[in-house]
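User: I'm putting together a small comparison set for a docking exercise, and I want a reference complex before I start. The sequence is below, and the ligand is iron/sulfur cluster. Could you produce the 3D structure with the ligand included, as structure tokens?
Assistant: Of course. I'll restate your input first, then give the structure tokens for the complex.
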Amino acid sequence: MELLDQLKEKIKERLPELDVVIGWEQGFDPLHATPLFMRTEEDVDRLVFSPLCVHNLASHLTGLKGKKVGIVVKGCDSRSVVELLQEKLLVREDVTVFGLPCTGVVSLKKIKHALGGLDKVASAEFNGNELKVSAAGAARVLPLNEIAADKCGRCQYHNALLSDVFVGAPVEAAAEDNYADVEAFQAKSPQEQAAYWRDAMQRCLRCYACRNACPMCVCRDHCVAQSREPHWMTQQDTVQEKWFFQMIHALHLAGRCTECGECERACPVGIPLLLLKRKINKEIKELFDYQAGTKIDATPPLLSFKVEEENINERGW
Amino acid sequence: MAAKYLKKENLVSWLQTLAKERLTLVPRREGDAVVFRPFAPGQDIPLDQQATTPPKAAVFPQCEPLLAFKYAKDPENPGKVGVQVKEKLGDTPSVVVGCRPCDARGFLTFDRVYDSDRASDLNYLTRRRNTLFATLACDEPASTCFCNWVGSGPADAEGSDILMVPVEGGFVLEPVTEAGEKLMEQAPLEDAGDKAALAEAVKENAAKALGEAPDLSQAREKLLSLFDNMDFWEGVSAKCISCGACTYLCPTCYCFNITDEQSGAEGVRLRTWDNCMSYLFTMEASGHNPRPTKAHRLKNRVGHKFSYYPDIHDGHIACCGCGRCIKSCPSSVDIRQIVLQAIAASAASE
Ligand code: SF4
Ligand code: SF4
Ligand code: SF4
Ligand code: SF4
């Protein structure tokens, strides 16, 4: 049986005991999938799973508190569920995880570059390791490794790390992540780095899609960026203010960010936000040997206290 | 003035001339986005597709100081504190070149709100009167375009001062207003000749490519009849993450917040974009929030555009069909689908 059919069957089995199961369905054009909230068997029939299923559906979990929720997760998505559980932001019994093996999702931005735009896509079809698209009257074949999301190229957890129901055959491969992108960026001079972010942040709209798409950003409606009482941040649209918010987001995610990349994917003006989060995660890994959402019984470093940290030389200066 | 022809290679020299007298805003590629920025010689001007953001900020900035204030003690009577207030108005003559018909039409929705018998917003009006639009007609609509659903089309000149129709080798420029005609006089133009017929063909093809528009005349009533049907709204909003991407990219969304940003004895009163998808938008001082969930908020976004606004503005739909809220939504929420579903849902329940 095809993976998708198995998954549908498993979801249908569990549906009676659940309020809703979150998966994906086809979106407004052949290249866009969109989250699907399944309540009936007919809904389940609309389910899809392909490299177009880019969304981390775990971002919806904390908004469904008190409900019995099923969720379909890829490897990376499962890390967010694990981290949410570690932080006791979810009740384990309320969540039913349908885990999948995943060989990678696409980056719509890369496809956009390859096609020169996404406005006129007429068809898209996966064939082994290729995507066949026709757009604006021309047909193209794009190798998957050229259009895969960056995070997939360094993925160490292709298979859902947590699942109540696992469907399909586990993927054997696992890549290394040496934070080469962060190193490369840091090789630039401080002036170049500052100029890069000044340029990028200039077009920030303060729309907070980055924040609301993040599975671990749980304050949302009460975020310091917008609170009026107290009025923590000015509403100015200066680069300084926008950058300030990104620093707040990055620091509030220190040791919590699972690098799903939703912040960056959600940004309507394409600001490369994941780089900031990866910089912090690199430090967290070096200091605490910790990767968010990979071990369900580990305590996140910033939720714990040790008198002597192994990798921090407290009185050594 | 009749339609004229502008060779592609002469576009920059025209922009250069315009930029001497007006702030000239053109599309510019920044990272993965295309945004409107002041014209700068030597920079690429991507005109092949709709910009990521609309030129909304040209008339309605993301953030603008309305006034500066300063508290000062009265030297005669130190117990008394007075306040000096200085109003600020943006009146820089501007022109937007290369926006799309939907972008320019967006301001028609603003006009009915900020320039009415009941209220006229001086800051808005000053900018509005000082800003012209040389709009590029669309030769090939995107999959998200639906301007024809809301009474418009890919060559609609309403709200523009010049319509530029892209043809082989350049543009056929049609003056729409007197001000637009003046701008055209500054361009190195040629007679349109047989290019005029080409331009007509471009317009026709684009209109055809959009296909038949569904009948939205029922939307007003149907959306209203669904107002208390929270099951419906919870269903269509389930995947929405309640951010501000859709509204801040929308050429017709005109809502704002006002904050006094004070430091010491002085400060500014800022007007910044705000949006109905935000929880705090309707938060009342009492702590009550009439739109506590994203379902309430998405109901407002769709309802306002397709029902409540048309209801008090002669049927004018407060959406120009640009499709940005669809293509830039992190969850691909499709406003077209919601409107159609609303029409169908209430038909079924009748
Ligand atoms: S900060 Fe970005 S990458 Fe990290 S968990 Fe949040 S959305 Fe994912
Ligand atoms: S999603 Fe992008 S534009 Fe919106 S607030 Fe975040 S960084 Fe700014
Ligand atoms: S519809 Fe999309 S863009 Fe708008 S608030 Fe919801 S998630 Fe954000
Ligand atoms: S509601 Fe959406 S399609 Fe309509 S004008 Fe606004 S952004 Fe464009």
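Chain B has one domain: 4-349. Chain B has twelve helices and twelve strands.
User: Thanks, that's exactly what I needed.
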